[in-house]
């Protein structure tokens, strides 16, 4: 996990599957993720080490229906096959019994994964052929007990936030080639995944077509309605900012981008911004002027 943290900005950035092959344990190559199966249970260990959820484009189905429970916000991870005693399922069960930390590799592109760690298997739902995985680490809190309503709601919201935001970010940053859509800045630590329609809006889904990779300046400008993006992918800057006289950041970073096309777009057309969502956001930008 320390090795992963050093290579993924403490889990904020994704990693390619070929980069995972660089990991060494006691000087020897050691796979952190199973490239063929969902659950990685090394022969030399008596419990699982990691599990993965394969990438799917928006609207496509995964071979296993992994997901987040609506009631408690926790991850549901499907068995390998239907046999509870399959060695890989037994490996996850052993990790649950011993409360061992695991790594969850979530696919955010072909051969690209966002590692979430540590996560813990906290329960097994045999009738549904799945395990329940906690990505927030509640320690010894029993989610089945009588938690107060506000505390349970907080835990659920925090779980979803920790799961969805990094996955959304990694997917969007990967789609835009790790560059700002407005200015093409390519430093990953200075980039954010901006929602076109905010996630507090029911239309603000955490999908790549509702996202723009933006540097922190342009993300802040978008959120403040200083910068807008038209449905035809042209940038506009609010009129009062165009009339303001200030330093080079205002002139080159904002004013010079007025009525210019986005500099970077995803290579895949099905990952480019949704025109309908851009229109909603652009209307909000114009209304704030």
Please provide a written account of the structure.
This protein is an alpha+beta fold. The N and C termini lie far apart (47 Å). Residues 137-149 and 151-156 have low confidence and may be disordered. 29% of the residues lie in helices and 21% in strands. It has helices at residues 2-7, 17-20, 87-98, 149-175, 216-223, 239-243, 248-254, 275-288; strands spanning 15-16, 24-25, 28-29, 39-40, 50-53, 67-68, 75-78, 102-109, 112-125, 130-134, 191-195, 211-215, 227-229, 235-237. The protein has 2 domains: 2-152, PUA domain-like (Roll), CATH 2.30.280; 173-288, no CATH class. The strands form 4 sheets. Strands 1, 4, 5, 6, 7, 8, 9 and 10 form an 8-stranded mixed sheet that branches. A two-stranded antiparallel ribbon has the order 2-3.
């Amino acid at each position: 996990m320390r090795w992963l943290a050093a290579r993924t900005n403490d889990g904020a950035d994704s990693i390619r599957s070929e980069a995972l092959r660089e990991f060494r344990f006691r000087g020897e190559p050691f796979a952190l993720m199973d490239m063929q199966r969902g659950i990685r249970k090394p022969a030399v260990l008596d419990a699982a080490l990691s599990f993965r959820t394969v990438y799917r484009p928006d609207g496509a189905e995964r071979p296993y229906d992994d997901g987040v429970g609506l009631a408690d916000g926790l991850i549901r991870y499907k068995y390998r096959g239907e046999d509870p005693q399959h060695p890989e399922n037994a490996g996850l069960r052993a990790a649950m019994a011993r409360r061992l930390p695991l790594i969850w590799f979530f696919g955010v592109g072909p051969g690209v994964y966002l590692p979430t760690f540590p996560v813990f298997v906290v329960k097994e739902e045999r009738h549904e052929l799945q395990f329940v995985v906690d990505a927030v680490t509640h320690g010894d809190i029993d989610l089945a007990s009588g938690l107060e309503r506000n505390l349970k709601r907080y835990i659920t919201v925090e779980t979803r936030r920790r799961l969805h935001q990094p996955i959304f970010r990694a997917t969007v940053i990967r789609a835009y080639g790790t560059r700002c859509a407005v200015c093409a800045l390519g430093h990953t630590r200075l980039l954010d995944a901006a929602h076109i329609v905010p996630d507090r809006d029911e239309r603000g889904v955490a999908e790549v077509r509702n996202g723009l990779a933006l540097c922190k300046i342009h993300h802040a400008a978008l959120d403040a309605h200083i910068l807008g993006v038209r449905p035809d992918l042209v940038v506009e800057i609010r009129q009062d900012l165009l009339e303001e006289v200030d330093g080079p950041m205002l002139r080159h970073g904002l004013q010079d981008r007025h009525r210019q096309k986005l500099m970077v777009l995803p290579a895949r057309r099905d990952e480019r911004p949704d025109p309908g969502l851009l229109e909603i956001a652009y209307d909000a930008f114009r209304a704030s002027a």
